Amino acid sequence: MSHAAPSRLPDGSTLELGTATASYQIEGATTEDGRGPSIWDTFTQRPGAVRDGSDGAVACDSYHRSEEDADLVAGLGVDWYRFSVAWPRVVPGGTGRVEPRGLDYYDRLVDDLLARGVKPTATLYHWDLPQTLEDAGGWLVRETSEAFADYAMVVHERLSDRVGLWATHNEPWCAAYLGYAAGVHAPGRREGGDAHRAAHHLMLGHAMAAERMRAASPCDVGIVLNLAPIWPERPEAAGVADGVDALRNRVWLDPLVDGAYDAGLLSVAPVLADPALVREDDLALIQGSADWVGINYYTPVRPDLAGADAAAHDHPEGQAYPGVPSFDLVVREPVTDIGWEVEAAGLEELLVETARRTALPVLVMENGAAYADTAVVDGRVQDDDRVAYLRDHLAATDRARAAGADVRAYVVWTLLDNFEWAEGYTKTFGLVHIDPDDQARTPKASYAWLASEARARA
To answer: Most CB atoms closer than 10 Å: which of 28, 289, 383, 414?
Structure first.
């Protein structure tokens, strides 16, 4: 085992580049080496839950091909690789017994990255909650926050001599509101306003873990949020846009920065004023619990009054904003293959505003695009549309830095075409094509572009 100095927060003198993946989307091996079932293993077996009826049982087989994937990251010449740890691979039952073979896998991955000159960055929760914890209430109950902090310490103890930059949660909005309100992500529940309980417990779990990790050893702990610029389509939609902003952005940033849930948020999520849920000292623990904030950005959100314009459409996540009056979304051309509007100016605005709001270093932890990748030239995917998307959004990041925002990294989603959650394998975001028959990896034109960009900035 190597014992290199832990990678820590970039100093900001230059913009560091990286790429990212998530455990359930790439690892496969869902029943190997003692791994327990996750909510995604369960959810994907529900008829109609996933567009193509697929699951992550094999995915990209990265559990068996981690060295090959580390080579691909190194070939990009980027500074770092963001991976996530599968909670049920390390603590199969959610609490209690630790599976050493799971820890060994991540131990080898970290060493493989360091040996190739890549800084590993670990995300502790990218949605694969152990099913046993969901059976006991999942993120709707406080005990899951406590279990998360215990699990975080297990991983931190094993890897903290080599990993110094940690994310607790990835996109808690998806975990709380797509999982427990809209029901379109695991665990697939439609609990209405009770989903706000999940939002609070996710933030509480983050704060509990961050406090314990920092006390154990020097490290930089942050949280990765899929914040969005909220652009009301017309002045009359300002009220509904405020509700959308409350549940997309402020429910995370307000406790993190101010140690409070604001009045506008409480008007759509009154349960967050319940002292039985938000106990004394919870918000004080959450306030200041992040050393940095991660931003995942793909598209702006343009709310409009329900039925106001034929250009709008029903919100695709249905009940993802419990407490907000019914509204439509406007999506303007051009769009990606997943139907998301392409607008790099949204990233620039979001970075400037988040840096101002939090006074913390900001890291772009995911940015990328799903395209159909139909152009093949000399055996290589010629994904010029993805190259253009990344070039424009990297330029937007540079502009935000030039405007004074403390943005220190830009991380491309994603290294590999993978299991894209409820879309299954129908949408591809990767820099590397995966052959579904034999898992062969073939870098795309966007891979070569990012490698060239990394060289130019080195």
So the answer is: 383
Per-residue pLDDT at 310 = 64
Give the model confidence (pLDDT) of 299-344 as tens digits.
999 999 998 776 776 676 778 999 999 999 999 999 999 999 999 9
Nearest to 411 by CA among 81, 117, 116, 68: 81
- CA angle 301–307–313, rounded 5-degree value: 45
pLDDT of 150 higher than 80? yes
For residue 349, the SS3 value is helix
Helices marked H in 298-361 — which ranges? 344-358
* CA–CA distance, 26 with 400 (Å, rounded to integer): 32
Q: For residue 175, give both structure tokens.
A: 């975990």
Both tokens assigned to 55: 């699951």
* CB neighbours of residue 212 within 10 Å: 15
Residues catalogued as catalytic: 171, 366
Closest CA to 144 of 107, 184, 180, 178: 180
DSSP code at position 355: H
Q: How confident is the model at residue 1 (pLDDT cuts 50, 70, 90)?
A: very low
3-state secondary structure of 209: helix
